Fold this sequence. Notes:
460 residues, alpha+beta, BirA Bifunctional Protein, domain 2, Herpes Virus-1, Rossmann fold, 3 domains, five-stranded mixed β-sheet, 23 strands, 32% helix, globular, binds adenosine-5'-triphosphate
Amino acid sequence: MISPEKKMDLLVSLCKRRGFIYPDSEIYGGFANAFDYGPYGVELKNNIRDAWWDMFVRGRGDVIGLDAPIIQNPKMWEASGHLQNFSDPLVDCKRCKRRFRADHLLEAKQAEPGYDKEKPLEIADIKCPECGGELTDIRNFNLLFKTFIGVTEDVSNVAYLRGETAGGMFVAWKNIRDSVRNKLPFGVAQVGKAFRNEITPGNFIFRTREFEQMEIEYFVKPAEAPQAFELWLEGMKKWLSDVLHIKDENLNFHEIPDEERAFYSARTIDVEYRYPFGLKELYGLANRTDYDLGRHQEYSKEDLRWLDPETGEKILPYVIEPSWGLSRTVLVTLLEHLDIDEADTAEGGDKEPRMVLRLPPRLAPVKAAFLPLQKKDELTTIAQELAQSLRSEGINVEYDESGSIGKRYRRQDEVGTPWCFTVDFESLEDKKVTVRDRDAMTQERIAIAEVAGWIKDRLK
Ligand code: ATP
């Protein structure tokens, strides 16, 4: 059995070794908690993003897309409450100087066995989890990154990198309402970078200061908000099971109780995943009422209400906000499908971990690999031509002729390629190739002329 810590270490090293995720700026000594998505990582991330867009935007008639800037008019962050409230409670240990999020320390204490729910816990009751030292009082630390527009760095030029993609949808609501949609309900979707000056980034790409989100603001008549919430919960569950293939036992849908919810939220569910480092948030779903549009209406002095053609009444719609972290989805997809077992080493010494990424084919960075059994022209030509014919149809495949066939299979297993096609001398006679299935480990012979159709059928 591989321990959770070991699993995380193996994943991080696999990601670097195989070109999924590298520590950023490594030649300059690195840059803490910043990562590059390498060739396979960027394919995986884009495949997840595209599957999400297909399911929730193109696959439905009631959601449309938006792409807003990262730096927008700073007034919007005042209106949204981010300048005042988008902060995390920070404490320092007076002895070892380590820094923590007070809410995380409280949560950890409350999860301990024997915790008495009746006795409210305060940070003053807690000691440093690392050294037992005394903690400072809480300071609130704003997470928005500040920058300056133009040549002078004075207050009138201050702007912010967006802390979430959601804001862009509220600010564009009036233009969308007036140009393309005037019937409720409808949703606006956006995928893009968000920035937070996190106090305690870490756990690989789980919490970084720059990350990607996929968010939808779904505008509804207030009376229809509770039902829309349920439908989006179903949608999020379907995404997790049908697209990411996440097992139920690794998920937890945490209903946030009244006293812990943001004051404007009528209902919030945190979707949590069992990471090797504990049960923690993956996604969020909230009924944000008319808070956001109300605040933007107040600060912009524009009428953001919607005219109900049936009643002639003007109302501010409610908003259901399902929010997905794209970077966190990459982490969860890798963790969920990384299969590790022990195999004999080639040298016959100690056992070594053998890793297979059992990614759903649709998400796999490489769909198929074409491998000539030997580096002989008559075999390499067939394999190369097959690879090129799939590439020209927009399917990402690889051609590999280096090393033993066993080593080439192992390499493809580690990057999650579902099918390997081997061209051998028999192929010259029977015009067939052998396809090896990554998970079933079956080998089947199929006609060269049918390879492209065979792959496309399975990607549907
Ligand atoms: P947390 O409690 O973990 O700080 P949050 O509740 O502040 O998260 P939201 O503001 O609801 O998170 O953000 C929506 C989603 O964006 C999260 O569910 C998560 O998937 C993702 N996300 C938020 N912060 C980060 C981060 N620093 N790094 C990577 N993904 C993040």
